[in-house]
Amino acid sequence: LYLSHNQLSGEIPTSLAGIDFNVIDLSRNKLQGDASMIFGGNKTTQIVNLSRNLLEFNLSAVVFPQSLTSLDLNHNKIFGGIPPEMTKLSFQFMNVSYNRLCGEIPVGGQLQSFDVYSYFHNKCLCGAPLGSCK
């Protein structure tokens, strides 16, 4: 599903929770609210791009599909922390910059292989590759 750059607004329909997309790109719209229904442990989604919207949900509560290899959530209002389960995923790309995330970046998996630009401009995110937590 490719719907980027369309000036879409409002909330993502909850009916999308029942669909197992290989790729979903809703980037560069004006979508708001909760997008956590896009994810799920029983799905086979590989690529999710929800960047540059107005989405607000708790990343800590999201269950990610094991098949996920690319996650772009930059420039939203996503809060919470990065769940430790993300260390078990084989990411080729990940960007959670420009959100409201807090807490320590879990150590392990691919998470430290991404540079500071994948994480910066969050409320209080810390740990490698960002500065140490106080």
Summarize the entry for a quick read.
By secondary structure, the protein is mainly β. Helices cover 0% and strands 23% of the residues.
**What is the SS-derived class?**
mainly beta
Q: Report strand %.
A: 15-25%
Q: Largest beta sheet: what is the strand line-up?
A: 2-4-6-8
Q: What is the gyration radius calculated from CA atoms?
A: 14 Å
Provide mean pLDDT, rounded: 96
Helix content: under 10%
CATH class category label: Alpha Beta
- The run of helices and strands is EEEEEEEEEE
Distance between the termini: 41 Å
| CATH topology-level name | Leucine-rich repeat, LRR (right-handed beta-alpha superhelix)
How many strands, which pairing sense, and closed or not: the largest β-sheet? 4 strands, parallel
Tally of helical runs: 0
> How many domains, as an integer?
1
Structure description:
Its main location: other. It holds the Pfam family LRR_1. It comes from Momordica charantia (Bitter gourd). This is Polygalacturonase inhibitor-like. It is found in: Cell envelope. The protein is mainly beta and 134 residues long. It has a single domain (9-126), classed as Ribonuclease Inhibitor (Leucine-rich repeat, LRR (right-handed beta-alpha superhelix), Alpha-Beta Horseshoe), CATH 3.80.10.10. Helices cover 0% and strands 23% of the residues. The protein has no helices and 10 strands. The protein has a 4-stranded parallel β-sheet with strand order 2-4-6-8, with no helix packed on it. Strands 1-3-5 form a 3-stranded parallel β-sheet, with no helix packed on it. The chain is globular and about 40 Å long. The mean pLDDT is 96.
